[in-house]
Amino acid sequence: MSATVDIRRAADRAVTRTSWLESRHSFSFGDHYEPDNTHHGLLLVNNDDIVAPDNGFQAHPHRDMEIVTWVLEGELTHQDSAGNHGVVYPGLAQRMSAGSGILHSEKNDSPTRPVHFVQMWVLPDEANISPSYQQHEIDDHTLRGGLVTIASGIAHHDAAISLHQRRAALHCARLRSGESVDLPAAPYLHAFVVRGRVTCEDAEDLGEGDAARFTDSDGRRLTAQQPSEVLVWEMHAKLGG
Question: Which residue intervals define the domain Quercetin 2,3-dioxygenase C-terminal cupin in the entry (predicted)?
Fold first, then answer.
């Protein structure tokens, strides 16, 4: 089967705005429901969030979800009902497994600086596992060394943090202008440009906030037109499959 790619533009994302939050949704989320845009592969949520100073998400519940947070600017303070506490900043990979049920809050404790982060959700392999939390720092030098695995449940991957989903992995690449990276070959791939602009081999260029959804990915190459950062989900299954 030949590879296909579906380009989703930043301007076409649904947006939630409040007095303290600007959240741009790649998929259906909250009050924004599109029946033909609920997921890609195993990825259900890819939210691009900016939270104002001294604000954030009060304690709220989650269940049976692997939640990965990647901060671009600022700091995000996490607390949950299992007793975990952490401050997430650029280069620190964080995963919360909601499992059988957990309450957590996410706050921007800075009095002056907003926090900008991407939060991504995939379903776990098993329901009702014990909730857990993990974070690990990845230095900038490593992130500039090609496609670096941030989180993975795939057995042969050496990842900073683990996922309770053996058919999914999240990678990141920080590219200088002119640098290239080869995407994995996988049944489902989601490449999201968080900064900069890249050229995708045999497809359209991608700017900040744009995404490419690959089916039967054949390992195409991304080349940065300017300093860029890309988050790439590699998935070997889809929801219900």
Answer: 157-235
Bridge-based pairing of strands 132-137 and 115-122 is unpaired
Residue 240 in any domain: the answer is no
pLDDT at 47: 98
Is 184 within the bounds of a domain? yes
Distances (CA, A) of 220 to 53, 154, 233: 39, 21, 14
> Which residue carries 């042969």 as its tokens?
156
Start-to-end CA span in the chain (Å): 17
The DSSP letter of residue 179 is -
Query: Is 93 within 8 Å of 68 (Cβ atoms)?
Result: yes
The 10s digit of each residue's pLDDT in 73-92 is 999 999 999 999 999 999 99
Annotated binding site: 60, 62, 104, 106
Supply the range of the domain harboring residue 50.
4-235
Segment 144-192, tens digit of pLDDT: 999 999 999 998 888 999 999 999 999 999 999 999 999 999 999 999 9
